[in-house]
Amino acid sequence: MTSRIHLPATGITLLDLRGLFGPRVELEGFSFGEPPIEYRFCRHGRPICDWRRGDAEFHDLQRVRLTTWHERGTGFAYTDPPQETDHVTFGLSPDGLTLETRGLLGNPSVLIYLRPGTFPESGTCGVN
């Protein structure tokens, strides 16, 4: 499932989607409709990766179960604990997650891909 989010001129977008998709939702990846000049992710106001050049490519946020993960040496370095103990891979938790952007032009948006199996397919919003 995907969710399109408009990027505000303030440059800070809250990506905590748990209220919409339930407490176990994880982010699988993202892409920009019209990319900003630069972007980075923060958790609870603290950067969890370096500033990166914006592009329109798909970025995979799934990780293998390691203490620290790097996305092809391009600056993402997360140390979040895994959400599930029975999976080999896991997505990025949206808890307190924000996307900071610089240099927005046109009608900027980000397309968020939710990790299958971490949100309800219909109606219950993560409530079992």
The radius of gyration is: 14 Å
- The N- and C-terminal alpha carbons lie at a distance of 19 Å
Structural class: mainly beta
Number of DSSP helical runs: 1
Global shape: globular
What's the mean pLDDT score?
A: 78
Q: Which percent band covers the strand fraction?
A: 35-45%
Order of helices and strands: EEHEEEEEEEEEEE
Can you describe what's shown?
The chain is mainly β and about 130 residues long. The protein has one domain (about 1-115). Helix content is about 5%, strand content about 35%. The radius of gyration is 14 Å and the shape is globular. The protein starts with a strand and ends in a 14-residue tail after the last strand. The relative contact order is 0.38. Residues about 65-75, about 80-85 and about 125-128 have low confidence and may be disordered.
Brief digest:
Helices cover 3% and strands 36% of the residues. It is mainly β and 128 residues long. The protein has one domain.
Descriptive labels:
mainly beta, disordered C terminus, 4-stranded antiparallel beta sheet, single chain, 3% helix, 5-stranded antiparallel beta sheet, globular, 36% strand
List the helices and strands and how they pair.
Layout (H helix, E strand, L loop, with lengths): L1 E5 L5 E3 L3 H4 L5 E6 L5 E6 L2 E2 L4 E2 L5 E2 L2 E2 L4 E2 L6 E2 L10 E2 L6 E6 L6 E6 L14
Antiparallel strand pairs: 1-13, 2-12, 3-7, 3-13, 4-5, 4-6, 4-12, 8-11, 9-10
